[in-house]
Structure formats: C-alpha cells, structure tokens
C-alpha cells in the first residue's frame, strides 16, 4: 500500500509535458501565438549551397544577412534556427517497360532503403516578443486590459510580424524559403507502389491540393465561378463525400522537437500545447541521457552545448554537423537587445575585465572596438544559446555519439560541454519562445550568430516538379544526403513539369573513372520517361546499354558499307536543302571550292534524282549520271575538276563509295526508341567524319517530335570541330531544347575540347556539368574554360582516382556525388562495354535472338565464364 502511495505522489509531482510547451493556436494561417502573447512564424529553408563558394564569397553572404538583421533590429525580434539531420529512405517512384532498366532500378533503390541516407532540414523561426523587458513583463501581469485593448495589441503585433515575414522571405530568396502554413487534407483512395513494384490502392491522408490535381478533370468548372482553386476543390471533395481536415505545418515542425519524430498536427479547438505531446519523454535523475518512448520503439538522446569559443568566428563555423554520421538537432537562439541594453552589457563586460586586472588588453580593446561598431550600427547585438541533441538506439550508442559531437566542436575551436543536470531545461529550450529554459545564454553580435547559423546546406536537387516529372535518378553526396539528379536546372520552389528549359549536360572524366558507366546509369534511369535516345559512341562503350534497353546499335567501321544512302530520304523541302549542302561538302572535300555554276549543277542533278526517280533507284552513282562531265580543255594547264569528277571517289568503286553509295538506306529510325552509332574509326578522319556526321545529325535531329529526346555524344568536340557545325552549335541546341530534347556531351580530354571554338559555345549552353576525378586538372581549363569557381576547381582536383565520386554543378550550386555500385557486377558488364564484349553480345544474339530478356542473362553468363580466372 505504501508503495502505491509513493508512486501516486511521484506521478502527482511530475509536471505535464504541456507545461513546457508555450504554443496556443493559430492567429493567422502562418502565425502561431503563445500563452505569453508572443507570436512566431516558421520558415523552412533549402539552404544555400556553400561548396562552390570561396571564403570571400561566404563572408559576403554573412554581410548581406547582417544588413537584413540590422534593418529589422528591435528588442521585439528574436530568432530560433534549427538544423534537423535525420535518416530517410526516399527514392523516386518509377515504372519501366524495359526489364533491364526495371531490374537495375529495383536493385539501385535497395541501396537507399537502409540507414545510410540522411537529410538536413533547416528552419528559421521569427518571433515577435510581446514583452522583451522582464520588468515590464512582470508589471504587465498586474495591468488589467480590456478585450478590445488585447485585440488591438495583437493585431498590431501581427502586422509587425507579417512585415518581418515579407522582409525575411525576400531577403532569403537564395536560401529557398518556404513559409510554413496550415493546409487541408482529405482521406481518399490512393495508388501505392509496393517494394516489388506492384501497385494497389489504400485509403490515405492526402493533401487537398494533390487530390485536386488528380481529380480535377472530373469536375468541370464554369468560367464565371468566382471561388479560388482550393475553395472549388473543397466543394468537389464534399461532393465526393470526402471530409476535409485542417492541419498545421508549423505545429508539425514544433511537435517534432517535442516528440523526436514527425507527426501530423490537426488544428483543433484545444491548444497546441495540449495536442503536441504524443510520446513520453523521460529524463534520468542525474541528467546526461533522456529517453523518448513511442508506441513502437524507444530512443535515447543526449545534448552538448556551446560553452565558449574564440571571439573570431568563420562563415559556416558549424557546417561540420551538416555531414554528421548520426541523427541530431542543432538548435540556436538569438534574442536581439535594444542598442541601449547591448551597450550596457558590453560596457559592463569591459569594466569587469579592467576591475579584475585581467592581463589581456586585447580583449579590452576588442570590446572597445565592438562598442564603437555597435553604436555605428555595423551589427545588432543579442543573447545566444546553442545546443546539439544527438539520438541513438541504446544508451551506449548515444554516449558514443555525444563524444563524437564533442570532438567535432573541439575541431572548430569551440569548447563544448555535455549537458547534465540541466538536460530537461536544455531539451525544452529547443522550442522557440522558451526563453527561461535556455542554458547559458551569452551576448553575441549578429555577425557571430550568422557565422554559427549560416543557413548553408548541401545541394539536394529537385525530387519532383521537373520538366520531365520526377528526378532522373538519385545519388548520395559526401554528406550522406540525397542528390536528386536532373538534366534540367529549374527553381526548387516551382513546378516546371511540361516546361522546356535548357537541359544540355556535359560530362568530363579521365579514362577508367566511370564516365561510360555514369552515362549508362543516366540513360537507364531516364527510361521511365520513354525518351527517344541517340548515342554517338566511342570504342563501343555503350553498346551494351543501348541494346539492353531494346535499342539498335550500328558499329560503323572504316571501309565497310555503312548502310547509309542519303538520296533515299523523302523528297521534303528540308531534305532537299540538306542534300544539296551534303553533296557540296563532298565536292569540296578535295580542296576545290564549289562555285556558283557548280551549285547550279548540283541543284539540278538532285532535283532530277529526287523528284523523277523511284526511291529504290536513287543513289549517288545515279546522281553522277545527271551531272555534266565535259572533257577538259587541252590548252588549259590547270583544268578545274568538274563536280562529277570530284564525286567519283564517293561513288561505288571509289575510295569512299562504301559510305553513302549503298543500294538501300538501312538507317531506319522509326522502329526503335534507342539508337547507337560507334564512330571511333572516323573521329580522326575529317574527310569522312564531316559528311557522315552531317547525315547522322540531320537524320537524328528529325526524330524530335515534342516527346523527351536525349542525344549523347562521346568526345563531342571532335565530330563538331568542323566549321559546318558552327551554326548548329548556336541554333541547333536551342531548337532541340524547344522540341523537348537535350544533349549530353562527354569527353575525357577537357583541354582539347576547350581548344575548339564550337565546343566552348556548346559548354556555355550546358545547364548541368559533371566532373569526374582528374588529378591532372588544369586551372586554366576548369576555371577559365568551364567557368568553375576556385572552390569548385579544388573539389574536382581533390577527388581521388577510382573513388567513383564526381562534382555536379548546376548554376551557382554544386555537390560531390558518389556512384556506388558495389554488388552490381552483372549490370556493370552491360553498362561498361568494350570491343571484345561487344563481339560476345553479337555472338550471343546470334544464338538466342535480340530480345534483351534473353540475351542479357546469356551474355553475362558467357562473360563470367570467359573472364573467370583459370
């Protein structure tokens, strides 16, 4: 009995979690109130990619933000920032109609379903303090206010906070701000994709906007309907007997700080302080560790606080925690002081040093300078606290992670302290507006605060809302965060599906660093969009990829019939214009220019062949029969060769007759979606390369039809270095973009590529740049040629060979990604082909047929048998 009484007394003495939570309800859709009358609004930020910035640039970012802070400075303003680092298993959903692509995607997806992937979520909470002065706050408790006065005071505070909201939103544009707000949901049947790729329907909570996007065609709307889109959507949901519920995103973020996990937060009649606690939070009697009990699991946490640091801080001072190998929450608060209060604090601190006979005159001088800067308005001043909460599955693991966190602080010249008896207070101080629980708040300048809380993050890409829909694929960054790859570079906060911005991409990498494999992965993963694909290949490296994806591959070889016959093109105007340019190029290949009379002869001959002869009869040999071939003047010592004579070497029996003078044109680009052409033999033979590329580019560009289109060109600078492609490099890329296409250019020789004026023009039009390891990288090539910053060049230069890492750059953002294909031995045999493996593919296809479902397994088996050590 006495034990029961003791337990009951203990329970009665335990404070409810709600007593530590200050939040009441929404004042507006984006503003929450507290019991003390404070108001807050929460921004979620994608963060600014810092890897590509040098030190001076990072300092400029701090100065720019400091200018914003100075403009908004008031003792009514306070800020809380949070960096939430958590594990995710996100991966873009996709459907493939090709077995190789589907199986690769399923296997690749499994790499991201464990505990290896982390995301960094950044939040900025802007607070309007009702009573920043403690004395006035105390006196206000004894002052009786009418309801009208309270309403007017709150309306004035809301107006002030909304102005701050607009100021921060516009000033933080480069940091990807989103103001968290209320949102509406319905419960409806939704397609769900299982791990095995099957799709079934489940009733799920789905945002009203997403439901409406799916169901809009079912509800025609009259032109004169004055309701907003969401109002009409809500009425449509009601017509479907689907109740609509209101939820709060800012409350969900705050509830995550309370519960240690993400939970939905409906807006109800009760205060949020009552509805937010969903898990049991326990604190040990002696501090050090805490425990979070959910209905399904138990987790532990510990906290480390910033105790002291050098007065000199650097931009991104705490960026080390953006790549911490554990889940954590970095919390910082900054409560601005009035200039009068800040001056008083600095003067008292300076006087304390003088009175205590502190030998450090430097500190006194620094405080004197700080006072001058404060009064000159060079920075704002406030009280700051910083804690890091780390999470583990066991007490031992949590202690180990706390020690790692402590070491990370020491590494950046910060003296940390493990939070012990004050753990409970420090935990609740993570919640914005919990002033009284903050451990050890210390005076700090706005510049110091912005160095500690720089709002940096790693480039994450865009998972959805891209021009072709979902991300092409996903890589893992050096920081363990997901990198959603897209050829197109678009704003993260815009839905660009269906748009046609630039998506041209360039890939550089030394031999053996994974360039061919990377290109193969990008094509295989892009298979979800069902694009038309053309690959101009070298050394048959991508033959396996093209054919495994169900495509047709042409291994063109010097001296062997190519199956090309340009004169069997349909006699459409654009083809006639092209043929005249092609024949002119062939005629000029000997060095003799084509004059006006020559052009007339060529034009007449082509018109005759194309419009008067049946298609099976049209070929270069017959064109010669329609070109005049008069006898040369015996008295002319340097007779000018006729067009007929100059074209003889291109006709059957001539030196190059095998290129175009074939009985039929076997380049059928209507049967498959993917085509590959190996042009290795011709890259260094301009006399053949130029006309051949003219024909292949003309044919493949004609495949554009508004559907996704990808053209890959390995060692692109060689086939395009001819003057005839100057116009194409300027206008052709724009045309391809407008037709929903993109080009992927690849080279292992960036220096040689940059020597080509055409290549430079192409590089300038590339939205995405990918750089694989190159320890021999030249600053001139990468900084002056590819326009990398010094920091980006250093990243490329520092990538270890064979690391399977790469630097990806889009606009001002860059990241270091990894191609981790451990366990993909079979797939690599296909993705990284070679001439000898290409011959095995052809031999296997001769045995089992060209169905990839049959020949790919047989090919893998045969290669393994052949390459197995004896």
UniProtKB/TrEMBL annotation:
Top-rank taxon: Bacteria
InterPro entries membership: CagE_TrbE_VirB, CagE_TrbE_VirB_cntrl_dom, P-loop_NTPase, P-loop_TraG, T4SS_component
Family statement: Belongs to the TrbE/VirB4 family.
Single GO MF annotation: ATP binding
Originating species: Xanthomonas citri pv. durantae
Keywords: ATP-binding, Nucleotide-binding, Plasmid, Virulence
UniProt domain TraG P-loop: residue ranges: 649-802
Record has DNA damage as a keyword: no
NCBIfam families, alphabetized: VirB4_CagE (TIGR00929)
CagE TrbE VirB component of type IV transporter system central domain sequence ranges: 246-440
Keyword ATP-binding set for record: yes
Protein name, UniProt field: Type IV secretion system protein virB4
PANTHER family: TYPE IV SECRETION SYSTEM PROTEIN CAGE (PTHR30121:SF12), UNCHARACTERIZED PROTEIN YJGR-RELATED (PTHR30121)
């Amino acid at each position: 009995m006495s034990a029961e009484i003791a337990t009951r007394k203990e329970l009665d003495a335990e404070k409810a979690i709600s007593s530590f939570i200050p939040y009441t309800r929404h004042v507006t859709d984006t503003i929450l109130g507290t019991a003390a009358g404070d108001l807050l609004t929460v921004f979620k930020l994608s963060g600014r990619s810092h890897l590509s910035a040098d030190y001076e640039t990072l300092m400029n970012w701090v100065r720019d933000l400091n200018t914003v802070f100075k403009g908004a400075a008031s003792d009514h303003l306070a800020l809380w920032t949070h960096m939430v680092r958590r594990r995710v298993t996100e991966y873009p959903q996709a459907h493939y109609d090709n077995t190789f692509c589907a199986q690769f995607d399923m296997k690749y997806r499994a790499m991201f379903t464990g505990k290896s992937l982390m995301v960094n979520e950044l939040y900025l909470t802007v607070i309007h303090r009702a009573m920043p002065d403690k004395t006035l706050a105390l006196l206000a408790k004894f002052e009786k206010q009418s309801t009208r006065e309270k309403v007017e005071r709150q309306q004035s505070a809301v107006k002030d906070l909304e102005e701050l909201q607009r100021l921060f939103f516009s000033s933080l544009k480069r940091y990807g701000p989103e103001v968290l707000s209320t949102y509406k949901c319905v419960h409806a049947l939704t397609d769900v994709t299982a791990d095995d790729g099957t799709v079934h329907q489940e009733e799920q909570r789905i945002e009203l906007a997403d439901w409406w996007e799916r169901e809009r065609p079912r509800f025609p709307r009259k032109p004169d309907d004055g309701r907003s889109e969401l109002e009409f959507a809500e009425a449509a949901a009601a017509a479907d007997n689907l109740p609509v519920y209101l939820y709060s995103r800012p409350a969900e973020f705050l509830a995550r700080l309370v519960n240690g996990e993400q939970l939905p937060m409906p807006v109800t009649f009760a205060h949020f302080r009552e509805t937010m606690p969903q898990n049991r939070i326990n604190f040990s009697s002696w501090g050090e560790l805490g425990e979070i009990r959910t209905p399904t699991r138990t987790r532990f946490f510990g906290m480390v606080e910033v105790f002291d640091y050098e007065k000199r801080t650097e931009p991104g001072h705490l960026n080390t925690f953006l790549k911490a190998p554990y889940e954590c929450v970095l919390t910082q608060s900054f409560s601005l002081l009035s200039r009068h209060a800040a001056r008083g604090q600095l003067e008292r601190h300076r006087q304390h040093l003088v009175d205590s006979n502190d030998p450090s005159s430097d500190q006194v001088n620094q405080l004197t300078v700080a006072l001058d800067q404060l009064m000159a308005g060079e920075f704002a001043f406030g009280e700051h606290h910083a804690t890091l909460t780390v999470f583990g599955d066991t007490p031992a693991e949590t202690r180990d992670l706390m020690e790692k966190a402590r070491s990370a602080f020491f590494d950046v010249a910060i003296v940390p302290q493990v939070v012990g008896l004050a753990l409970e207070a420090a935990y609740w101080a993570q919640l914005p507006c919990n002033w009284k629980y903050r451990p050890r708040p210390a005076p700090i300048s706005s510049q110091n605060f912005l160095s500690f809380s720089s709002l940096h993050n790693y480039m994450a890409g865009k998972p959805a809302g891209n021009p072709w829909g979902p991300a092409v694929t996903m890589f893992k960054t050096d920081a363990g965060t997901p990198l959603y790859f897209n050829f197109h570079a678009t704003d993260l906060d815009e839905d660009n599906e269906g748009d046609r911005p630039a998506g041209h991409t360039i890939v550089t990498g030394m031999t053996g660093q994974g360039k061919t494999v990377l290109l193969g992965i990008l094509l295989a993963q892009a298979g979800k969009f069902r694009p038309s694909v053309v690959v101009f290949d070298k050394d048959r490296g991508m033959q396996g990829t093209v054919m495994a994806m169900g495509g047709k591959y042409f291994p063109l070889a010097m001296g062997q019939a190519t199956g090309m016959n340009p004169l069997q093109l349909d006699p459409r105007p654009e083809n006639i214009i092209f043929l005249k340019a092609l024949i002119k190029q062939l005629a000029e290949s000997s060095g003799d220019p084509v004059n006006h009379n020559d052009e007339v002869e060529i034009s007449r001959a082509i018109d005759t062949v194309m419009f008067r002869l049946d298609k099976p009869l049209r070929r270069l040999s017959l064109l010669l029969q329609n070109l005049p071939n008069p006898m040369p003047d015996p008295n002319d010592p340097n007779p000018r060769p006729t067009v007929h004579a100059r074209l003889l070497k291109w006709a059957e029996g001539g030196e190059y007759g095998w290129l175009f003078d074939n009985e039929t044109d076997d380049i059928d680009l209507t049967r498959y979606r993917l085509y590959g052409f190996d042009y290795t033999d011709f890259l260094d033979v301009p006399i053949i390369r130029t006309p051949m590329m003219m024909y292949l580019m003309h044919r493949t560009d004609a495949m554009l039809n508004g559907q996704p289109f990808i053209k890959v060109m390995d060692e692109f600078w060689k086939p395009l270095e001819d003057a005839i492609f100057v116009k194409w490099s300027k206008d052709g890329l724009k045309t391809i973009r407008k037709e929903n296409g993109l080009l992927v250019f690849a080279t292992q020789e960036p220096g040689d590529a940059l020597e080509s004026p055409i290549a430079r023009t192409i590089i300038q039009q590339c939205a995405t740049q990918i750089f694989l390891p190159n320890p021999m990288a030249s600053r001139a090539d990468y900084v002056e040629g590819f326009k990398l910053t010094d920091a980006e060049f250093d990243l490329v230069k520092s990538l270890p060979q064979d690391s399977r890492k790469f630097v990806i750059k889009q606009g001002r953002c860059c990241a270091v990604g990894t191609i981790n294909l451990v366990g993909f031995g079979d797939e690599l045999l296909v993705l990284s082909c070679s001439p000898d493996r290409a011959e095995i593919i052809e031999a296997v296809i001769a045995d089992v047929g060209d169905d990839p479902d049959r020949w790919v397994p047989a090919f893998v088996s045969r290669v393994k048998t052949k390459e197995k050590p004896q």
